């Protein structure tokens, strides 16, 4: 920051990032071109984590727009996970027999530059209307094989506690629903939103698993830890999901620090995702062979509790597959 004080408001334009000292003046035109196509949002919590003096800062890299985003590589796809063909009603994605996604909104606290839904997410898109939400809930009610409702988006914790609580209560009331899951970046990106009221909204009479998206150990600040603690005390079970990202966590040391930080926050690492080929994300790509080699280094070195499953989405909606690394009992 030029004056040394972190911003108190969320930064949503290239100019605001520059004024806060996070982007040099020379980078503003390129960032403005990116902003024509993709949303920008850097919360005060995230801005405070960025070291503007470090050109390789792993937090900045996740959130600050880069002109490389406007270059689509030949293998990149607008809908890399192919949600569209698996959408029985607006806001629902049903790809696996026993579980389905509900996307009540497409807004997020921050907009990650590598997001696989980057063509869809944004501040003013995708909030289901009352009628659309009713239709989505009716789909769950008449689909008895779906035992798990997974709220994602966008970020469901951007909803008001009252509205989120109402959706969860309605889903939990269905006899076939055994567990609820929420995927969110809010606890690390906007921990102030995790109020006691929000934690109370997540406490339903069915088990609720909250999968926290975090990619770097530094994201587990004191405020994030306090937010996660409020959730744990409300009975929420915390899981972690991360994306393997060039320049953010592509070393054994960075991954070890990330998974250890999760465990200290009572977050069990669940998935490490191979980057999905969304448009303009090539600068984050780490080859699968390299990801496997990094995980091999961690085997034996860190507690087994720290181990996520390394997964990749197959093309054309084929679903997730584990990527190993594979071991044989005789291997050294
Ligand atoms: C990832 C995903 C899920 C959840 O899969 P798990 O392996 O249970 O975490 C469910 N539905 C869709 C469409 C998904 O992409
Ligand atoms: S919080 Fe999740 S959905 Fe939102 S931009 Fe980041 S990766 Fe995408």
Automatic annotation (TrEMBL):
<keyword id="KW-0408">Iron</keyword>
<dbReference type="InterPro" id="IPR022447">
    <property type="entry name" value="Lys_aminomutase-rel"/>
</dbReference>
<keyword id="KW-0413">Isomerase</keyword>
<feature type="domain" description="Radical SAM core">
    <location>
        <begin position="94"/>
        <end position="320"/>
    </location>
</feature>
<keyword id="KW-0004">4Fe-4S</keyword>
<keyword id="KW-0411">Iron-sulfur</keyword>
<dbReference type="InterPro" id="IPR013785">
    <property type="entry name" value="Aldolase_TIM"/>
</dbReference>
<dbReference type="InterPro" id="IPR007197">
    <property type="entry name" value="rSAM"/>
</dbReference>
<dbReference type="InterPro" id="IPR003739">
    <property type="entry name" value="Lys_aminomutase/Glu_NH3_mut"/>
</dbReference>
<keyword id="KW-0479">Metal-binding</keyword>
<dbReference type="InterPro" id="IPR058240">
    <property type="entry name" value="rSAM_sf"/>
</dbReference>
<keyword id="KW-0663">Pyridoxal phosphate</keyword>
<dbReference type="Pfam" id="PF12544">
    <property type="entry name" value="LAM_C"/>
</dbReference>
<dbReference type="InterPro" id="IPR025895">
    <property type="entry name" value="LAM_C_dom"/>
</dbReference>
<protein>
    <submittedName>
        <fullName>Lysine-2,3-aminomutase-like protein</fullName>
    </submittedName>
</protein>
<comment type="similarity">
    <text>Belongs to the radical SAM superfamily. KamA family.</text>
</comment>
<dbReference type="Pfam" id="PF04055">
    <property type="entry name" value="Radical_SAM"/>
</dbReference>
<keyword id="KW-0949">S-adenosyl-L-methionine</keyword>
């Amino acid at each position: 920051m030029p004056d040394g004080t972190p911003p108190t408001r969320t930064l949503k334009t290239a100019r605001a990032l520059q004024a806060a000292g996070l982007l040099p003046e020379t980078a503003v035109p390129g960032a403005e071109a990116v902003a024509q196509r993709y949303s920008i949002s850097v919360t005060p919590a995230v801005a405070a984590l960025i070291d503007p003096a470090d050109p390789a800062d792993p937090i900045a890299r996740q959130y600050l727009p880069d002109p490389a985003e406007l270059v689509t590589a030949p293998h990149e796809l607008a809908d890399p996970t192919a949600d569209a063909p698996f959408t029985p009603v607006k806001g629902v994605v049903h790809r696996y027999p026993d579980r389905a996604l509900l996307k009540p909104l497409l807004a997020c606290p921050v907009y990650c530059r590598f997001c696989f839904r980057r063509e869809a997410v944004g501040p003013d898109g995708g909030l289901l209307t009352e009628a659309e939400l009713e239709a989505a809930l009716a789909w769950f009610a008449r689909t008895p094989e779906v035992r798990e409702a997974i709220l994602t988006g966008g970020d469901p914790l951007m909803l008001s506690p009252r509205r989120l609580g109402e959706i969860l209560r309605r889903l939990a009331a269905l006899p076939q629903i055994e567990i609820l899951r929420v995927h969110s970046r809010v606890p690390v990106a906007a921990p102030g939103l995790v109020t006691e009221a929000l934690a109370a909204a997540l406490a339903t009479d069915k088990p609720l698993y909250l999968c926290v998206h975090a990619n770097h150990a530094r994201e587990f600040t004191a405020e994030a830890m306090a937010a996660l603690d409020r959730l744990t005390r409300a009975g929420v079970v915390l899981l972690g999901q991360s994306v393997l990202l060039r320049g953010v966590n592509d070393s054994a040391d960075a991954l070890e620090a990330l998974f250890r930080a999760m465990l200290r926050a009572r977050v069990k690492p669940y998935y490490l995702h191979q980057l999905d080929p969304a448009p303009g994300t090539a600068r984050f790509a780490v080859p699968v062979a390299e990801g496997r080699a990094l995980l091999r280094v961690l085997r034996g070195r860190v507690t087994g509790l720290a181990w996520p499953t390394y997964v990749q989405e197959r093309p054309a909606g084929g679903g997730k597959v584990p990527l190993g690394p594979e071991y044989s009992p005789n291997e050294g």
